[in-house]
Amino acid sequence: MTVPTRGDTEPAGGHPRAPDGPEPPAIPPSPSKAGRPAVAAGIDPALGRLADAILVPPFAGQAAPGWVLAALAGGLGGVTVFGPNIAGPAQLATLTARLRSAAADPLIAIDEEGGDVTRIGHLDGSQYPGNAALGAVDDTDLTRAVYHALGTDLAALGINVNLAPSADVNTAADNPVIGTRSFGSDTELVARHAAAAVTGLQSAGVAACAKHFPGHGSTRTDTHDTVAMVDVPLKLLARRDLPPFAAAIAAGARAVMPGHLRVPELTGDLPASLSAAALTGLLRGDLGFTGVIISDALEMRAVSGPFGLPEAAVRAVAAGTDLLCLGRDTGRLSYLAVRDALVAAVASGRMPGARLEEAAARVAELRTWTAGPAATAGLPARAAGIAGGSGGGSPRINTVGLAAARRAVRVSGRPALPLRRPVLVEVVPPASIAVGPVPWGLAPWMPADSIIPVGTDAAAGDLTAAADRALTAAAGRSLVVVVRDAHRYPAARDLVARLLAARPDAMVVEMGLPVWRPPGGGYLATYGAGRSSGQAAAEVLGLTDAPDAVPRAGAPRVGAGPTAQTDPV
To answer: How many domains does the chain have?
Structure first.
């Protein structure tokens, strides 16, 4: 494929345009980075409806606020649902049914990747393994089945747009934001699984959104905090990062999400999310994408920091974005400010009205597509049997997700099984913004008095004390150490080394990417920290019975799960 260089798509003034197409008007600085434009009081109703049509704002609470219902009735494109909106499956289905009652076929979007990034399972952990686990198995039929099952769950809950899958090729092992969200570090593997994920989701009637174009896997910064840099030649970008997006598009992906990623040869000083060279030139022109371009959260500091939320929204749409996600921590005032900024940009001539019309037309087409297979009748009853997000008691086991998680487990080294009344040391890294505070680990399958948690940010003295406490408690017992992306945290590696020096028979369980592993001992890798991955590891370790077992509070029992592989990690 041919990748346009910055010189192909941007004039000397720095305002990008599509190859062989007209240059969009310059976007001068916004009059205000924070407040609503002065035109709000006299807003043009027609322009207001067009702006509303391309917005999917969030809202607070677990019931639909009046302002959201009124906006939907007035033409708002839809909403984005986040974890705090969800108390459980039946509640979520009731909520989405109420949202649908306010308008015909609104878009109801969610960021549900499975594995580490889950919203419907934010209270208990996801019942589906994430992409890294599916990539480790490398069975596209399995990936398709998992994403179909996930899509079926989402459709039953009233969700019709999933901001997944990640199509990023994770070539930077220390990537702080992608990691297990990627299918892997091999371009061809990621491409075939991205296509399978798209096919699986959309066969359930849920629109897929491949992200984070043109590829977030080689970055070492988190765009929630700052613009990430992909400073590589365009030929390398085309060879390494773009094929998964091309595969997702070929599979019929209804949407693509650009990342807040700066690719100097392509986007100049702008992130791809605000660059016409990336969106109109590369994504639409070279890759031939005709679906909806959905923004990553515009509240992310990578774009809201330098521009402010309303101005970032204007620049995103001017560059080619069709549907704007604002982010979890925004509300009604942010939504109004963005809407008014879009109207003001058109009214003042800063942005062509045709660009807003084009975006609204694409969103309308997506709404029509989602209306086909998505049925709303009886959603709360159908949702009652969905695993995840129970908010109390033991979540139901999802057989498709658990079967996939079992196949992903890898055991190597010299595991000292069966375990004897094990002591569990959980080495806890800080939660990323993308993942959030979702439960993970093996604690649900262990007695509480046998668990010793320690944070990777603990002081050296506290780490030493935790190691001494664990070794004392594990005298005459087995020792299990659970880590998550140990390669990224020196404290985690130091603690594991200290424990193994005294207890070489200890079992290390890695629930992130198995990039680093200690010498000797037993080692188990799950390729993710979702609930299903924890269940699969617990079975191998004999902490619970294998077939469809649920966590329990009693003492662990011996009995290894049958499907773990003993391949080298």
So the answer is: 2
Place of tokens 């209804």: 254
> The domain containing residue 521 runs over which residues?
409-541
Query: Sign of dihedral through CA atoms 190, 194, 195, 196?
Result: positive
- pLDDT at residue 14 greater than cutoff 60: no
Judge whether 17 lies within some domain.
Answer: no
- Same domain assignment for residues 326 and 427: no
- Residue 70 and residue 85: Cα distance in Å, rounded? 18
pTM above 0.85, yes or no: yes
Q: How far apart are the first and last CA of the chain?
A: 34
Catalytic residues: 224, 296
Q: What are phi and psi of 22, to 5 degrees?
A: -70, 150
Helix (H) or strand (E) holding 428: strand 423-428
- Structure-token pair, residue 176: 């702080």
**Helix-then-strand count for the chain, H and E:** 20, 14
Rounded Cα distance between 251 and 238, Å, is 19
Could you tell me how far CA 108 lies from the centroid of its own chain?
Answer: 16
With residue 427 as reference, give the H or E element that holds it: strand 423-428
* Pair (130, 248) in one structural domain: yes
Rounded to whole angstroms, the Cα distance separating 167 from 214 reads 9
Same domain membership, residue 345 and residue 434: no
Residues 277 and 136 in one domain: yes
Confidence (pLDDT) at 327: 84
Verify that 376 and 478 share a domain, yes or no.
no
What is the distance between the alpha carbons of residues 405 and 526, in angstroms, rounded to a whole number?
A: 7
Nearest of 108, 42, 36 to residue 323 by alpha carbon: 108
Residue type at 71 in one-letter notation? A
Return left, alpha or beta for 114; rule: phi > 0 is left, psi -120 to 50 is alpha, else beta. left
Per-residue tokens: 61: 């609470």
Contact 266, 223 (CB under 8 A): no
Q: Is residue 556 part of a domain?
A: no
CB contact at 8 A, 292 and 363: yes
Least confident range from 2-6, 179-183, 463-467: namely 2-6
- Tell how strand 207-213 and strand 228-229 pair up: unpaired
User: If DSSP codes are grouped into helix, strand and coil, which group holds residue 228?
Assistant: strand
Q: What is the DSSP code (8-state) at residue 324? A: B
Task: Please report, for the domain that includes residue 500, its CATH number.
Answer: 3.40.50
In a domain, residue 525? The reply is: yes
Quote the percentage of the chain above a pLDDT of 70: 83
- Yes or no: say if 555 and 419 are a contact pair by the CB < 8 Å rule: no
Indicate the burial class of 439 (C-beta count within 10 angstroms; 0-12, 13-18, 19 or more).
middle
- Model pLDDT for residues 232-245, shown as the tens digit of each residue: 999 999 999 999 99
Whether pLDDT at 310 is above 50: yes
526 falls within a domain? yes
> Do 371 and 423 fall into the same domain?
no
Taking every pair of Cα atoms in the chain, the longest distance, rounded to a whole number of angstroms, is 76
Q: Decide: 294 and 256 in contact? Cβ < 8 Å.
A: yes
Does residue 413 share a domain with residue 367? no
Tokens matching residue 198: 């798209």
480 φ, ψ to 5°?
-120, 130
